[in-house]
Amino acid sequence: MSTTVDNLVDVLTGVCLLVGALMSLAAAIGLLRFPDLMSRMHAATKPQVLGLAMLLAAIGLQLRSWAVLPVLLVAWIFQLLTVPVSAHMVGRAGYRTKHRRPDLLSADELNAVVAAAAQDLAGDPDDDGAASRGADPGV
Question: What is the sign of the dihedral through the CA atoms of 66, 72, 76 and 82?
C-alpha cells in the first residue's frame, strides 16, 4: 500500500515540476518575444507566480513534512505580494519614460491623468497647487 502512495506522490511531484517549469519557460519566452513593455510585464508576472506555486507544491509533496509547509507558503505569499507591486512600478516608470506602444493599447486610461499632471506642472510657478486640489485660495 505504501509503495502505491509513494508512486502517486512521485507522479504528482513530477507533474507539478513539469507544469512549473513550463510556466517559467513560458514567462522567459514571453519576455524575449513580446513587443512592448506592458506585454513583457504580463509575461513576467502571471506565469512566473503560477510556475513558482507549482514548484513549491512539488517541493512540499516530495519532502512529505508538515514542518516545511509554512516556509513554502511564506515564499509564495511573498511572491504574490511583491510581483504585482513591482510590475505596477515598472509599468508606471515605463509609461512616463515613453517606453510604450500606444498602437498596441486597447485603452489608455492613464493618458488623461498624465496630461492633467503635466498641465498642472506647466501652470503658474508661484501656485502651490491649492486651487487644483479644491482648496480655498483665500484661506
Answer: positive
